[in-house]
């Protein structure tokens, strides 16, 4: 998240920030941030934020501003400094791994956590965005997880502004890739709030992708599976992402459903089937990522009437598995859609096979003498 640009004073608006003039602007900002008076520090923070908004080079050149900016976040600093310094640090951290690590090492995390609990909505939003950016660093994930930030992020996911909720779920998605954080996240019961955000988001959005990422991680726990199944429309929302999400979101969605079904097939099979998952699974077996294709085929096998292999006279092909499932589906509309998808899948498979044979024929044709 990049917050809106601050209004600039006449003395700072005429600074040349083109590549030719960037060095002088950077030096000026570094000089200002070292001054003792609060006005100079505040002006420097705004300058640093402006200079680093789009320039990776300036983020590197201004790395030494991290420590004085973090000092502006202290409780005894003027409140007007907090947001400007935090936003400057946020911009410094974007796409810069060293700055992300330096900001945490300089002690910014304690201040960010304090701001997450602030009644100042703007400050709370900026702190959430900062945690999102800082949590993208592999080195920072365990530190943030151990800092007490996760329950606060989940609280923002429940009660924050729309933008803060989006940033919070993205931060949780980042943190969930570190195994030790998963236990902390599941203890905060995030699934209901994640599902609520997912249901209000466009299924093809980045937000939906990150929601499904968190859900996939959480359903690895019995508490997560129970929470998702208990949420009205929870499994349906995941199925809808499986059908209409980004490629990565669909991979998370099918992974979540597969994990649920594998954990207790008897308990969850009907819950998944009744949400009309078959057409989306069929499409994934042809058009999904390699992981999605494998997971979709495995889930289709689990969803059929019996989990055991068919006899040698009825081979365990994808077509037979799907036909078996279709025969059990209630509702003409869903059955018709699934059959149409199966026909299209077979057609695509035949076309791909034909193209492959044509390529082989061209390769094998002897050159005319």
TrEMBL record:
Which PROSITE patterns is this protein grouped with? ARM_REPEAT (PS50176)
Q: Which UniProt keywords apply?
A: Repeat, Ubl conjugation pathway
Composition bias of kind Polar residues appears in: 1-15
Name a Pfam family for this protein.
Answer: ARM_PUB
Check the record and name the Gene3D superfamilies matching this protein.
Leucine-rich Repeat Variant
State the coiled-coil residue ranges.
none
Q: Does the keyword Glycosyltransferase apply?
A: no
Q: What is this protein called?
A: U-box domain-containing protein
Q: Which organism is it from?
A: Gossypium arboreum
């Amino acid at each position: 998240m990049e917050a809106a640009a601050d209004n600039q004073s006449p003395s700072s608006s005429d600074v040349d920030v083109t590549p030719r003039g960037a060095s002088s602007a950077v030096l000026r900002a570094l000089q200002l941030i070292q001054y003792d008076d609060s006005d100079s520090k505040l002006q420097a923070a705004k300058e640093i934020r402006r200079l680093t908004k789009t320039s990776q080079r300036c983020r590197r050149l201004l790395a030494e501003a991290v420590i004085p900016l973090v000092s502006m976040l202290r409780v005894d600093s003027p409140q007007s400094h907090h947001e400007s310094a935090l936003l400057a640090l946020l911009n410094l951290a974007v796409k810069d791994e060293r700055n992300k690590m330096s900001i945490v090492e300089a002690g910014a995390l304690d201040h960010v956590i304090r701001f997450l609990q602030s009644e100042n909505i703007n400050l709370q939003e900026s702190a959430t965005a900062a945690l999102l950016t800082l949590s993208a660093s592999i080195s920072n994930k365990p530190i943030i997880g151990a800092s007490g930030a996760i329950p606060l992020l989940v609280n923002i996911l429940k009660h924050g502004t729309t933008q803060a909720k989006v940033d919070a779920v993205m931060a949780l998605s980042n943190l969930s890739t570190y195994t030790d954080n998963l236990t902390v996240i599941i203890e905060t019961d995030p699934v209901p709030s994640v599902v609520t955000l997912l249901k209000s988001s466009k299924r093809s959005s980045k937000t939906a992708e990150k929601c499904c990422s968190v859900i996939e991680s959480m359903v690895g726990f019995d508490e997560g599976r129970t929470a998702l199944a208990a949420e009205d429309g929870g499994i349906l929302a995941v199925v809808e992402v499986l059908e209409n999400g980004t490629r990565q979101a669909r991979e998370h969605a099918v992974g979540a459903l597969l994990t649920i079904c594998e954990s207790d097939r008897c308990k969850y099979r009907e819950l998944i089937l009744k949400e009309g998952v078959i057409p989306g699974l069929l499409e994934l077996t042809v058009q999904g990522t390699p992981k999605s294709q494998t997971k979709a085929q495995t889930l289709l096998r689990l969803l059929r009437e019996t989990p055991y292999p068919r006899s040698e006279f009825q081979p365990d092909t994808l077509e037979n598995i799907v036909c078996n499932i279709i025969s059990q589906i209630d509702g003409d509309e869903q059955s018709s859609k699934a059959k149409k998808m199966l026909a299209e899948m077979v057609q695509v498979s035949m076309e791909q096979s034909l193209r492959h044979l044509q390529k082989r024929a061209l390769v094998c044709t002897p050159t005319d003498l």
